[in-house]
Structures are given as structure tokens and as C-alpha cells.
Amino acid sequence: MMQIIGKSAELQLEKDVSTRYLPVVIAAMIFLAALAIGGLFSLSNAISDWSATLTGNLTVEIAFDPTADLDKKVTDAVELLSKTPGVAAARAIEQEETLKLLEPFLGRNAALGDLPIPRLIEVIIDEDSAIDLAALNEKLGEAVAGARLDIHRPWLDKMVLLGRSVQILAAAIMLLIGAVTVIIVIFAVRTGLIMHAEVIQVLHLIGARDQYIAEQFQNYFARLSFLGALPGLIVAIIVMFIFNFLVGSLEASMLPPLSLGVEGIIALLLLPLMVALLTRFTVRRVVLGSLERMM
Predict the structure, then answer these.
(1) Which residue spans traverse the membrane (predicted)?
(2) Are 268 and 35 in contact (CB under 8 A)?
(3) Percent of the chain's residues with pLDDT above 70
């Protein structure tokens, strides 16, 4: 079998003007696909982190009251929660830590300390615990005025739904990019078949088989796709690094950095090879089908 990196012997497809800009188009498609993959895996990792962080973690909010002793309320709430069966730990969140949580929304401002900020308590539930959260919330409200239990579930469900929707959109974009790439390759191959029709007829006369001619086309276009995919992937990786750098340099940024994980990195590295194989398969089907109609 002819090597992919080899030249197309008799057809000399390397001299075709029609395929001169095909690597540029492939590079643009791979650039967009790589960004879509980056967003897809980053969202997947973010959703997993949200679920792992918030599952089993609750927050008790004690409303701000300038006339009440908030420190005593926090102490009473922590004591009640610590004695509750099914609660692994209860920790009062200091005011400075609460202000840091507000920085992504309000920025760093000395006036934050003057705001009527509620007091917070972090609660960790034992795994496989059958604790009645509604009853606990009612008991807490009766023991400590202004205390309310927040289970995070409605917020987490909305964030997961948003993340899954964006993931579906990213997957649809990848499918669209793949379809457009296939269509572009098909048009380029058919143009090449028309330009080399006379040479193909001569090859048929001297006994060349359709598989031999298809092999020259598929090797050539697979090589173009692979060489075009590499710079597109490199530029996409550079853009991801720049994005993470900008996110990290912003103070109190609400944007999460791109985190691909091992699976995402492998998917990105395999992208040029997958495009080359897809191109090779597409070209072979198109060429063999066209040659059968020419006979």
C-alpha cells in the first residue's frame, strides 16, 4: 500500500491549483473544532467539580440583624448542628472569608465590611445519611431566629442544566464542522477527478485498477488534511493558553479557566489523525464511486 507521506506517482496531484488552499480551510475547521472540544471537556470537568463540591455540603444563612448578637446566633447554630445525627461537621465561616466570596461579584472594596452581610455556616452531611433536611431547617429556624438552611440543589440543578445545554451545543458545532469539512473535501476531490480525467483514462487502458487510483487520491488528500490540521491545532492550543492566562491575571474573575483533563488532551492530540482518517475514508468512497460511473 502506498504510504500517506508519499507522492501521487502518475497523477501528480501535488501540482493541482484547486487544492492549494485546502490545508488553510482544514486548519480553520480544526481550530474551531479544537476550541469546541476544549469547551466541551472544560464544562464536563466543571460540572463534575460542582457536583462533588456541593453534594453533601449545605450552608446555613443567618440574616443580618444590627440589634442582635450575631456571634451568639452563630455559636448556637453550630452547636445545634453538631449535635444533629447525620451531620459530620459544622463550621462558622468568618466574615473575612465571606467578603472574599463576594469579591468576584463586587470587587475589592473597603466598603464591603459596612454592608448588611448575613453570617454563614458550612455544614457537611455524612455519606448515605437519611437526614430530613426540611425538619432540620424548621428546627434550626425555631432555635435561632433568622437562620435558614440552603441545600444548593436548585442552583446546582440549574447550573448542570446550563452546562449540559452548552455541551450539546458544542457537540452540534463539532458535527457541523465535520460535515462542512467533508463537503469541502468532496468538492476538491471531484474537481481533481475532472482535471485528471484524461490521465485516469490512460491508466485504465494500461491496466491500472480503481483501487490504485483511489489510493493516490486518498493518500494525497489525507496528507493535506493532516498537514493543515497541525497548525490549526497549535493555534487553538495557544489561544487556550492565552485565555487561561488572561483569566488568571484578572482580579476576582468569574470566568473559570479551561481545564481539559487527560481525556481532553488526548482528544485534542488525536484530532489531526482523526481528520486525516475521515478524509481518507471520504476520498476513497468518492473516487471509487466516480470511477465506476466513468467506466
Answers:
(1) 21-41, 168-189, 224-246, 258-278
(2) no
(3) 82
127 with 195, same domain: the answer is no
Question: Alpha-carbon distance 182 to 11, whole Å?
Answer: 22
Rounded CA separation 126/21 (Å): 61
The pLDDT value given to residue 293? 73
Q: What is the pLDDT of residues 260-282, one digit of tens each?
A: 878 888 989 999 999 999 999 99
Q: Which residue has the cell 476544549?
A: 38
Q: Apex CA 101: angle with CA 111 and CA 259, to 5°? A: 140
The string over 152-168, giving b where at least 16 C-beta atoms fall within 10 Å of a residue's C-beta and e elsewhere, is eeeebeebeeebeeebe
Q: Which domain holds residue 87?
A: 64-145
Q: 137 and 164: one domain?
A: no
Beta-carbon-side half-sphere exposure of residue 214 (alpha carbons within 13 Å): 17
Looking at the 3D structure of the chain, how many domains does it have? Answer: 2
**Do 25 and 160 share a structural domain?**
yes
Q: Would you state the cell numbers that stand for residue 25, as one nine-digit string?
A: 480551510
Across the beta sheet with 147-150, the strand order is 87-93, 119-125, 57-62, 147-150
- pTM, rounded to two decimals: 0.68
Give yes or no: residues 162 and 133 share one domain.
no
Type of residue at 60: V
Residues 88, 200, single domain; the answer is no
| Percent with pLDDT over 90 in the chain | 11
